[in-house]
Design brief:
heterodimer; A: 298 residues; mainly alpha; 12 helices; 71% helix; elongated; B: 306 residues; MetI-like fold; 2 domains; 14 helices; globular
């Protein structure tokens, strides 16, 4: 980026057009956005797109020996152990993945943003306690915590989302905290305080708008990790329970047959990879567009 | 320096006490009654009551926690409900496999991730960078269990180069380590790239190039040494995470490490074992962070701790 643009943008939020222009220059980001849109549409219109009912067990969906069918003309991605159409189950599985990804990450984002700003803006005793809690959470083996909670609390879709949120908010809280700390030091905040703006006005009018890009970026990146975590939990059998089709769950059900029916692992695995990758690349593209000075950070 | 280490160790102890408290409280969410689980389904109420008293489960919570902490300080993590042996013994028996997978996994991450990160940094904003970063994101986004199962299918079954899971020879460790490496390398490559890009823009790199050093020497000697710090701290983090067991990969490859122990314990709600694993993992995470921070001044003399 050329120097004069950087100078023009310093201190004020870049205009929408410029953000859009920057985003459109990022090809992986655009492809990722299209993939996300496709997955979302597939999830919403699942009943119209899916060739079959995801729970219907077909008599001709199994071989004579009772084994699942490989991909063929009737079942494009093959069938599972119960003779159900894998493609239809994957399309419906997108619903579970996205709902949990969005709900879990939305919750994590809300908790993380509130606690992060409180700790960074109010500081003092409360802020100290909040940051010590995040220290604790960082040392906690996150996956073991999630598995144990999911196992104890009897798995359901909402419990799984809640468990993921409980594990993921810490990162967001720390990012927001450090950003609020550095924002609060800047001259325009000092200036706002100096001209007599109230604490809440400084916060909502001057501080919060600068956090929006961070929240958008993390709101996107976090969906990727939530989708992955949900898949891992479902794979271990403590996530979404059958017969609800979930991508991790399909692999869990097929695990003992994967040598004979590798497509039952490959296709759901690819679905998880593509969805998670799309949200990651989209988040990365949004970061490049919204926060050009932070490009390349993790 | 010594004062710094002592204060960090003090913080670590506080973190571990906090973690033991949280874990302890979480176990009371468990709907099952441990005394009944140990006694078995056919036990009389008297037997259950006796076991409860033996375990101290009839005491008030703070007393129970105090007792747990006191035993913990003496290296006693209690007995497994299911296997009726000491938790420390169980953990120790899993350490060799866990340690082996940790070393191999970190090696795979580093060997895949660092070269990828360097190549991306050298070709920054051109195709090696774009390709490298899309690959790195793919590694990070790939579900480990599917990667592991597909590796098993391809290299254990279709072309049987490696055994189909299990533990023993060096051949057993390759596929699980590769599975861990593919995911971890994505992070390493990204960290390596951004650190390297920053260093490559420094004046001394231009000087080194200008005085006619070959590019490989500039990159591998001058730039790498100054951009490796963040990677070191990632290794420190990984030591902690991997020592605590990698549940998913161990489950796919039937690897008898701490992750599998944790998973089995969670399924039957064997609380002392779960708590033992959590505390052990947390200790290693804290220790790994500390080691990484202590390695900083060794690698970069400008960093000093007071």
């Amino acid at each position: 980026m050329s120097g004069d643009v950087a100078v023009a943008e310093a201190g004020q939020a870049p205009s929408r057009n410029r953000i859009l222009a920057r985003f459109l220059r990022n090809r992986p980001g655009i492809v990722a956005l299209m993939v996300v849109v496709i997955v979302v549409l597939a999830a919403i219109f699942a009943p119209y797109i899916a060739p079959y009912d995801p729970d219907q067990q077909f008599f001709d969906g199994l071989t004579l020996e009772g084994m699942p069918l490989p991909p063929n003309a009737r079942f494009p991605l093959g069938t599972d152990l119960l003779g159900r159409d894998l493609l239809s189950r994957l399309i419906y599985g997108a619903r579970v993945s996205l709902i949990i990804g969005v709900v879990a990450n939305g919750t994590a984002l809300a908790i993380g943003a509130v606690l992060g700003t409180v700790a960074g803006y109010l500081r003092g005793r409360v802020g100290q306690i909040i940051m010590r809690i995040t220290d604790l959470m960082m040392a906690f083996p996150a996956l073991i915590l999630a598995i144990a909670l999911a196992a104890i609390l009897r798995p359901s879709m909402w419990i799984v989302a809640l468990v993921i949120a409980l594990v993921n908010w810490v990162w967001i809280a720390r990012v927001v905290h450090s950003q609020v700390l550095s924002l609060a030091e800047q001259e325009f905040i000092t200036a706002a305080v100096a001209v007599g703006a109230s604490r809440s006005r400084v916060f909502f009018r001057h501080l919060l708008p600068h956090l929006v890009p961070t929240l958008i970026v993390w709101g996107t990146l976090g969906i990727a990790s939530s989708v992955l975590l949900e898949a891992s939990l479902s794979f271990l059998g403590v996530g979404v329970q059958p017969p609800t089709p979930s991508w991790g769950g399909i692999i869990n059900e097929s695990q003992s047959y994967f040598l004979d029916a590798p497509w039952l692992v490959a296709f759901p695995g690819a679905a998880i990879l593509v969805t998670s990758l799309a949200f990651n690349l989209l988040g990365d593209g949004l970061r490049d567009a919204l926060e050009p000075d932070r490009t390349g950070e993790l | 320096m010594i004062r710094y280490i002592i204060s960090r160790l003090g913080q670590a102890v506080l973190v571990l006490i906090g973690i033991s408290l949280i874990t302890f409280l979480l176990t009371f969410l468990v709907p099952a009654d441990p005394a009944r689980m140990i006694a078995g389904r056919l036990a009389t109420p008297e037997t259950v009551a006796r076991i409860r008293a033996e375990l101290g489960l009839d005491q008030p919570l703070p007393v129970q926690y105090g007792r747990y902490l006191w035993n913990l300080l003496h290296g006693d993590l209690g007995r497994s409900y299911a296997q009726r042996i000491e938790v420390t013994e169980l953990l120790m028996s899993r350490l060799p496999a866990t340690f082996q997978l940790m070393v191999a996994g970190i090696l795979a991450e580093v060997l895949l991730g660092i070269p990828a990160g360097i190549l991306a940094a050298l070709g920054r904003s051109r195709w090696p960078d774009r390709l490298g970063m899309v690959l790195a994101f793919s590694g990070v986004s790939a579900p480990q269990f599917a990667v592991g199962l597909l590796l098993l299918y391809l290299l254990g079954y279709r072309w049987p180069v490696f055994p189909l899971g299990g533990y023993g020879t060096w051949r057993h460790v390759i596929l699980p380590a590769l599975t861990l490496g593919i995911a971890g390398a994505g992070w390493y490559a990204r960290v390596m790239r951004s650190a390297m890009v920053e260093v490559l823009n420094q004046h001394y790199i231009r000087t080194a190039t200008a005085k006619g050093l070959p590019p490989t020497k500039v990159v591998l000697k001058h730039a790498l040494r100054n951009s490796i710090l963040p990677v070191v701290s990632m290794v420190g983090l990984d030591i902690g995470v991997f020592m605590g067991g990698v549940v998913v990969v161990e489950s796919v490859f039937a690897w008898p490490g701490i992750g599998q122990l944790a998973w089995q314990a969670i399924q039957i709600l064997d609380i002392p074992v779960i708590m033992g694993v959590v505390i052990l993992t947390a200790s290693f995470i804290v220790l790994g962070n500390l080691l990484a921070d202590l390695a900083y001044p060794l690698l970069d003399p400008r960093i000093r701790y007071k």
